[in-house]
Each structure stands twice: as C-alpha cells, then as structure tokens.
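Field notebook, page 426. I keep forgetting to write these up properly, so this time I am using the form the group agreed on. The chain and the ligand, pyridoxal-5'-phosphate, are recorded exactly as supplied. Prediction of the bound pose follows.
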Amino acid sequence: MRIFEDMESEVRGYVRAFPAIFDTAKGANLYDEHGNRYIDFFAGAGTLNYGHNNPIISNAMIEYLQRDGIVHALDKATAAKRAFMEKFRDTILKPRGLDYKIQFTGPTGTNAVETALKLARMVKRRSNVIAFTNGYHGLTMGALAVTGNDFYRDESYGARNNADSVPFDGYLGDDVNTIGYLRKFIADKSSGIDLPAAIIVETVQGEGGINIASVEWLRELEALCREFDILLIIDDIQMGNGRTGTFFSFEEAGIKPDMVTVSKSIGGGLPMALLLMRPELDQWKPGEHTGTFRGNNLAFVAATEALSYWDNDDFADSIAHKGKIMEQELQRIANKYADLEIEVRGRGMVWGLDFGRTGFAGEISSLAFKNKLVIELAGAEDNVLKFLPPLIIEEDTLREGLCIIDNVIGELLEQKKAAMSGDTAA
Ligand SMILES: Cc1ncc(COP(=O)(O)O)c(C=O)c1O
C-alpha cells in the first residue's frame, strides 16, 4: 500500500474504505493479489451491472482488438459506433416508443450532465436550472452546481451559479407535496427563483441515500415542466441500465423526458457517457461541443454486447426475482434488529438500509470488508448502507453477501453490548 500513500493524491477515497490490492475480478467477485475473494455489492458505483469481465463482453473486445479494430476515432464514423447505435435504437429505443438523438460526450457521467445543462440553456435561452435536495450529478463545475451535498463544494469554487435546489419527493415529510411547493415558486414572479431552462432529477437518488421519487411525483413533475415550458432532464447515470428493473428508471412512471443522461454500465464496464435528447433539441452547430474522448470504439463494442441482455425479457425477469430476494432479506434483517429502527428503501436491485444517523452504517461497511464483502455508503451523513450488486450476480452469491451483513450487524451489536457492560462494571 506504500506507493498509494506516497504517490497518489490525498483525494483518493475508496482505497481507504476498501484497503486491499485488487488484481482480478469475475462476475460479482473481486480477488486481491493474494487470491482472497470478496463479494462485490458495490459494482463500481453502478458501472458493473453486467459484472466484472463478463465473458460475452470480454470476448467481443478481445476479438475486436485482435483484428486491429479501430479504437480511437474522435467522432468519425466507425463500424463499431454504427453497430452500437443500431443496437441501441432497435433494442432499447424502438420497443419503448422513444425517439431520441444520441450525443456522445466525454467518457464519464459528469460530462453528459454538463452537456445536458449547456444544451438546455442554449435552447431555452435561460441560465437557471433547478435541481433537488440530495441530488448527485457529478463534480465538474456545471454538474457540481446541481449537486446537493456541500461536502463536494467549497464556496470559493463559485460553483453555485445559475442553479436552485428545491425539495425532492418526501424531503419535507410524507404529507407535503413538494411539486406543489415547486409549482408555487415557479408560478410566483416574486419567489426569487428564475424560470429555469431545465429541471434535472434522479428517479432514485443513489449517492443521496436511495431516496425514491414516486411514480405520481414524477408524473406531476413532467406535467409541471410541460406547463411552464421547462426541459425535463432525467439523470439515469446510476439508476439506468436495468438497475431499477427496467432499462430506463423512468419507464414505470410512463414519462418522456426531454433529455436523459446515461453512463456507467452503458459501456459494459468501459468508460462511456451519452446524452439522449428529443430531436428538436439538437440545435448544436457542428463541432460546437466537442472533446477528444467521445465514444471510444472499444466501449462501443462492449456496449453493443451488453445490450444483448435486453433482447428479450429474461434479464428484466431475473432482476425482478433477485430484487425481491433483496427486499425480503433486508426487511427480515430490519425486523430482526428492530431496536435499530432501520428503514429499508429500494427498487429493482438497488436497496438501502437507512440507520438514521452517522456512524453505524460505516462500521458495518468496515466489518463487512473484513468479512470479504465490499459495500458502500450513501446519504448526506453516510447514514445509508447501499446495496448495489452486479445485476448478473448469482442467487447464491447474493444470499451469501446478505448473510454477511446480517452477521456483521449482529456482531457489532454484541460488541457494543459487551463494551457497555464493561463500562457499567467499571
Ligand atoms: C446520478 C449520477 N449522475 C452523475 C454522476 C457522475 O458520474 P461520474 O462520476 O462518472 O462523473 C453520478 C456518479 O455517481 C451519478 O450517480
């Protein structure tokens, strides 16, 4: 570990939470350089929905490289890009009745968000954008302006320009309809909030703590956008690609966003990001929003293979099945440790255990890691243990990981009890 401490910036994060030197990985399993196996309930923060080194994807990439398939081509036309767009149109867009143009942005999620915000402002000729409490959209300046948690933002960056933050679904308690609140702000010329070019939202806030927008809330949000001529941007970077059970996380709500940001698992494990936009919004001049790494061809090859999971309903059915197991097991754990008053939240195969306070979720994650399970935290206070296994995880491995969590909570509670009785005895 010395070289990481000596040479890598202090900004490094996950290496601190998961201090092992990883070497190989397959499916939902990670292996360190000593061959120890870890179950992966983190999936590269949603990048590995199809698992590590998925053989269908890896074999296609190996074959492509071996035949000297072009890897870097800026945005020139390539056979790999054509194959991806055809597959995406025929497998994802058409069956869902969606008509979007695709813009390939720089390779990471925040690049897609920047692009969406810039285009919305350009098209609507308005600078303001509305985002939601606990939203997370990336950390470059434009995306940072619509990201809630101030841990990421120092006032000196000046990142808060032209963005307002308003309450997400449930933020003010179950009784307050936050769309009604937002509506009043937008309709009232004296509210202090400028009419925005766009509203950007996650249907399930991933980093923000697995906060779920209801179907009704999303529909009301869409209606509000239509009423006031505001563009609706769904940030599906973490919750898209099947995480909530359908390819896009907004499908259940039946809404049609004006733009959708997609990244993480779309590249089948390789860096790739794109913006989907209604065709009328595509008002760019050629080369006006450019970048060197837009649409890497190896990622197109990987992505095209990954999309074959959506050729029929089998994959969605398996997500529904394993999602149910997660829900039942996590509810069982919450009931078993009722004194902890754990709230269970989730959809599809993204679930959170909210401990309502800082600290305990972190202790669980640390001890779970010692027990060879990698699991991340979420929420404003790191109060949520976030379950994000690869969607292809085998049922046995899923149950094994959930069992580790159950045992770890039990062990931590025993330790706390022992410490307290030690204190009392002293
Ligand atoms: C919803 C959402 N938007 C944007 C991003 C930023 O993506 P990236 O870290 O690839 O820049 C993330 C990353 O976690 C995300 O979850």
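OBSERVATIONS:
- The chain is about 40% helix and 15% strand.
- Residues 395-425 form the longest helix (31 residues).
FOLLOW-UP: compare against the apo run.
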